[in-house]
Design a protein that fits this description.
alpha+beta, NUDIX_hydrolase_CS, hydrolase
């Protein structure tokens, strides 16, 4: 139960990234210290999916390509709406960063065991998604980018 609803929501973006052998990218945050899927807040003026790729690199050192949106998750007590994106690794090796004390590729079952409970359903949803959700970024009638509902 929420005692005081947030005055405004912040937008977050998280990547569920897989490598070429099906392992998932996870990061152990510095604060709070726990295993998570890489992600963070969207900067003003930043595209939703660009924030997911930026945050993944900042937390893991891995460059990724987003190719689908699983869904949007609401965290009322913290005032966050988070988009969960599916991505594939392009380059880089997981490493500690200023934001994470560790980053690594994990087998899915291992990741489900180690991830903080907030992130387990997000990974499970990404694994069971039959299609991504359409994400249309536009200014008026001009489409800036589009992820159509496709098979994930």
């Amino acid at each position: 139960m929420i005692s005081q609803p947030p005055r405004r929501y912040a937008l977050g973006a998280t990547c569920v990234t897989f490598n070429d052998v099906g392992r998932v990218l996870i990061a152990r945050r510095r604060s709070p210290e726990r295993w998570e899927l890489p992600g963070g807040l969207v900067d003003p003026g930043e595209a939703f999916h660009d924030a997911a790729t930026r945050e993944t690199y900042e937390e893991t050192g891995v460059h990724v390509k987003v190719h689908g949106l699983v869904g949007v998750y609401q965290h009322p007590s913290r005032g966050i709406l988070a988009g969960i994106f599916i991505a594939t690794a392009l380059s880089g090796e997981p490493r500690p960063t200023a934001e994470s004390i560790a980053a690594e590729w994990a087998d899915v079952e291992d990741a489900l065991t180690r991830l903080h409970p907030l992130y387990r359903p997000r990974l499970e949803d990404a694994l069971t998604a039959r299609a991504s959700v359409t994400l249309r970024v536009h200014e008026g009638t001009e489409v800036l980018s589009l992820f159509e509902a496709t098979h994930v």
